[in-house]
Specification:
It is built from ten helices and ten strands. With about 325 residues, it is of the alpha+beta class. The chain has one domain (about 15-20, about 45-300). It is globular and about 60 Å long. Helix 3 (about 85-95) runs antiparallel to helix 6 (about 125-135). The chain has helices at about 25-30, 70-80, 85-95, 100-110, 115-120, 125-135, 135-145, 150-165, 200-205, 295-300; strands spanning about 10, 175-180, 185, 190-195, 195-200, 215-220, 220-225, 240, 245-250, 255.
């Protein structure tokens, strides 16, 4: 079976779509660095389809053309703030034992300085961990989304189409996959966001004859999202793709940050307090408990999270 260089490495498909190692022939002929082929250095040179994005499978429910409720619609905008990802990943890891209202309170109480689109990913430590594990890849994804959002979304649909036609991407107990002008992935339970894992070296290539496609995408790990996270856009349809309009909605507002306006753009999050520049965060009021190895491995292996031993403990 044909496999790319990323074969054997499972990544959360709730994040982007594709694999950073996949490049088209046109891209290989162009010089690296910034500046497009026409010499315009006002934006990064990112050819259509590279860096490729994954299923774009994350986020919310019903309605227009959007992806599964979970992290892709939110992870793409979050990747446009690469400096926020490492500290956010550490915070999410150390506070992973908090859930629901307790986690929402901690996010607010700690007066976190990161963009709310990044804060919206804090309930998903494994997603932020994957993004933080390869910041070069995450930065490329963010730059692609800033400079060529339409190309990124078109790539998502192409990759979904490959996995769909090959039999890897199908409805199951956690998601509903629908065909039409666009392939959409919706959660069976809008309040429970699954973070699928898969090997891009498998699911984006047609299977060899006789190959069993049943377990190629794992859906064992998920996060319960309730009204506690409404300030960060986690409401019914609050975070979604609109495939026909090539748009992403966060907090029920169309995301408008581009390469040109990236320094000035402020996305509307009326219920999220934004600390003033230079403000000092209050002392940490919560116990810090990084995930154990079994806890880290659970989402990577598509398994339910093991029992948490530190839940509720405080300093």
């Amino acid at each position: 079976m044909r496999r790319n260089r990323a074969a054997g490495v499972r990544r959360p498909c709730g994040i982007l779509i594709g694999d950073r190692k996949q490049k088209n022939a046109e891209h290989e002929k162009r010089p690296s660095g910034t500046g497009d082929p026409g010499g315009d250095c006002s934006r990064p040179c990112i050819c259509p389809g590279t860096p490729v994005v994954r299923f774009g499978t994350v986020r919310p429910t019903g309605g227009a053309h959007r992806a599964l409720s979970g992290p892709a619609a939110g992870a793409n905008p979050g990747a446009t703030y690469p400096n926020d990802i490492p500290p956010a990943a550490q915070w999410a890891d150390e506070h992973h034992y908090l859930t629901g209202q307790a986690l929402a309170n901690a996010i607010s109480e700690d007066q976190l300085p990161w963009d709310p689109s990044v804060q919206a990913l804090l309930p998903f430590p494994s997603v932020l961990d994957m993004m933080n594990s390869d910041m070069n890849w995450t930065t490329q994804i963010g730059n692609a989304f800033l400079a060529q959002q339409q190309d990124v979304m078109d790539t998502v649909q192409r990759q979904r189409g490959i996995a769909r036609r090959s039999g890897y991407l199908t409805s199951n107990g956690q998601i509903v996959v629908s065909d039409g002008p666009y392939i959409t992935i919706m959660p069976v339970n809008p309040g429970y966001i699954v973070v699928p894992y898969y090997d891009p070296g498998v699911v984006f290539f047609a299977p060899r004859p006789g190959f069993a496609v049943g377990g190629a995408i794992r859906f064992g790990f998920g996060v319960t999202i309730g009204g506690f996270f409404a300030p960060w856009g986690w409401t019914a349809g609050g975070i979604r793709f609109d495939w026909g309009a090539h748009a992403v909605f966060l907090n029920n507002a169309r995301w408008g940050r581009t390469w040109v306006n990236r320094s000035a753009y402020v996305h509307p999050y009326s219920a999220v307090r934004r600390p003033a520049p230079g403000s000092v965060r209050p002392p940490e009021a919560h116990a810090l408990h990084p995930r154990s190895e079994p806890e880290r491995n659970a989402p990577r292996q598509g398994r339910p999270m093991p029992r948490e031993e530190h839940r509720g403990e405080r300093r």
